[in-house]
Amino acid sequence: MTHHAPPPPAAGCRETPVLKQRGQHEVFCGLTGIIWLHRKMQDAFFLVVGSRTCAHLLQSAAGVMIFAEPRFGTAILEETDLAGLADAQAELERDVDRLLARRTDIRQLFLVGSCPSEVIKLDLARAAEKLTARHAPKVRVLNYSGSGIETTFTEGEDACLASMVPALPETDKRQLLLVGALPDVVEDQALDLLGKMGIDDISVLPARHADSGLAVGPNTVFALTQPFLGGTLAALERRGARHLPAPFPFGEEGTTAWLQAVAREFGVDEARFDAVTGAPRARARKAVAKAATTLSGKSVFFFPDSQLEIPLARFLTRECGMEAVEVGAPYIHKSVVGPDLDLLSQGPTIAEGQDVELQLDRCRTARPDLTVCGLGLANPLEAEGLATKWAIELVFTPVHFYEQAGDLAALFSRPLHRRNALKLEAAE
């Protein structure tokens, strides 16, 4: 198949020694994944079993107005629950019964564990099993952990999707499964491209509705759209499904390589592939080139935050002309990001985990043109004269596939434009 991207590097980073960091780290907790998942699954409800702090986090992060009725809530653990003076299990079951009686639109209910519920060893798996027996077949109750004790925020989605896989019906049908929550408009673009190639039997996890007919089996092949879904990958393979490894669909090159992996699996010929992708590829290259004029020749340093870091470093270095100094990721699953590592030229430090003080020292020494990091580090680094990009914005913004390639590049060029504007203002 025709491919206009730069040739792969003579030696990628798949075998580069990884700097293992095991120290203080700064991340959001996995509860924040609910903010995009509750919008995606339109008949699901996410009930966090946690403290008032958990409730305040979700309310403030999601920006829910007082008169809105969102598809998430918090079952507050009071002091009596935490002290073992009340039967938290029985109270939770009563709360769920009241919720389902009031919200008759709910078809899937997720009990989401938090730091407090895990500290007191509340058995949400047993609660989910009992509640499913009580409310089936109308409502299926599942559980997963969104605790931030040892996890980063995107793992909330991974845990959620992985919890759904064992309950999916069995099928022998030959099908493609797209795995990962995408904004509806982006998902529709991907399905449209694949449909024009003649690939029609496609399901999506998570589906927008519980009655979508989603099933999995030994003839299911799946392609990840998000690089933080290692647990979901393992759960699907346990069901007999087969993973299609590919670079992630960020930018023109990544999107083309991702689509090619699917097209090869389903026997799409080269002429048809080029006919379907030619125009959007050209638009993507043009849009990226506009932002790349600002990014080319600049250095970038990634703190570990979302697990998007390796595919984004590949995009910035190969399509935008940037130089990666360090690429840190909370976890590195080579079965997931290996194809992106293959395309990332040797040179940057590849780091897994975090020891925030040591990484800050390396960042200050390198003085990169752009630092991609969490909110807690961005303001201090900006005060030290470093341009920063909030990593969390890359999760909340539509950035996948051809039509969003220019928007993705612009997210990185804007901080540099802002820095230059501030310098000009200070000079006047």
UniProtKB/TrEMBL annotation:
<keyword id="KW-0004">4Fe-4S</keyword>
<dbReference type="InterPro" id="IPR000510">
    <property type="entry name" value="Nase/OxRdtase_comp1"/>
</dbReference>
<keyword id="KW-0479">Metal-binding</keyword>
<keyword id="KW-0077">Bacteriochlorophyll biosynthesis</keyword>
<keyword id="KW-0067">ATP-binding</keyword>
<dbReference type="GO" id="GO:0036070">
    <property type="term" value="P:light-independent bacteriochlorophyll biosynthetic process"/>
</dbReference>
<dbReference type="GO" id="GO:0046872">
    <property type="term" value="F:metal ion binding"/>
</dbReference>
<comment type="function">
    <text>Component of the dark-operative protochlorophyllide reductase (DPOR) that uses Mg-ATP and reduced ferredoxin to reduce ring D of protochlorophyllide (Pchlide) to form chlorophyllide a (Chlide). This reaction is light-independent. The NB-protein (BchN-BchB) is the catalytic component of the complex.</text>
</comment>
<dbReference type="GO" id="GO:0005524">
    <property type="term" value="F:ATP binding"/>
</dbReference>
<feature type="binding site">
    <location>
        <position position="29"/>
    </location>
    <ligand>
        <name>[4Fe-4S] cluster</name>
    </ligand>
</feature>
<keyword id="KW-0547">Nucleotide-binding</keyword>
<dbReference type="InterPro" id="IPR005970">
    <property type="entry name" value="Protochl_reductN"/>
</dbReference>
<keyword id="KW-0560">Oxidoreductase</keyword>
<comment type="pathway">
    <text>Porphyrin-containing compound metabolism; bacteriochlorophyll biosynthesis (light-independent).</text>
</comment>
<dbReference type="GO" id="GO:0019685">
    <property type="term" value="P:photosynthesis, dark reaction"/>
</dbReference>
<feature type="binding site">
    <location>
        <position position="115"/>
    </location>
    <ligand>
        <name>[4Fe-4S] cluster</name>
    </ligand>
</feature>
<comment type="similarity">
    <text>Belongs to the BchN/ChlN family.</text>
</comment>
<comment type="subunit">
    <text>Protochlorophyllide reductase is composed of three subunits; BchL, BchN and BchB. Forms a heterotetramer of two BchB and two BchN subunits.</text>
</comment>
<keyword id="KW-0411">Iron-sulfur</keyword>
<keyword id="KW-0175">Coiled coil</keyword>
<feature type="coiled-coil region">
    <location>
        <begin position="82"/>
        <end position="109"/>
    </location>
</feature>
<dbReference type="GO" id="GO:0016730">
    <property type="term" value="F:oxidoreductase activity, acting on iron-sulfur proteins as donors"/>
</dbReference>
<dbReference type="Pfam" id="PF00148">
    <property type="entry name" value="Oxidored_nitro"/>
</dbReference>
<keyword id="KW-0149">Chlorophyll biosynthesis</keyword>
<feature type="domain" description="Nitrogenase/oxidoreductase component 1">
    <location>
        <begin position="29"/>
        <end position="402"/>
    </location>
</feature>
<dbReference type="GO" id="GO:0051539">
    <property type="term" value="F:4 iron, 4 sulfur cluster binding"/>
</dbReference>
<feature type="binding site">
    <location>
        <position position="54"/>
    </location>
    <ligand>
        <name>[4Fe-4S] cluster</name>
    </ligand>
</feature>
<keyword id="KW-0602">Photosynthesis</keyword>
<dbReference type="GO" id="GO:0016636">
    <property type="term" value="F:oxidoreductase activity, acting on the CH-CH group of donors, iron-sulfur protein as acceptor"/>
</dbReference>
<protein>
    <recommendedName>
        <fullName>Light-independent protochlorophyllide reductase subunit N</fullName>
        <ecNumber>1.3.7.7</ecNumber>
    </recommendedName>
</protein>
<keyword id="KW-0408">Iron</keyword>
<dbReference type="InterPro" id="IPR050293">
    <property type="entry name" value="LIPOR_BchN/ChlN"/>
</dbReference>
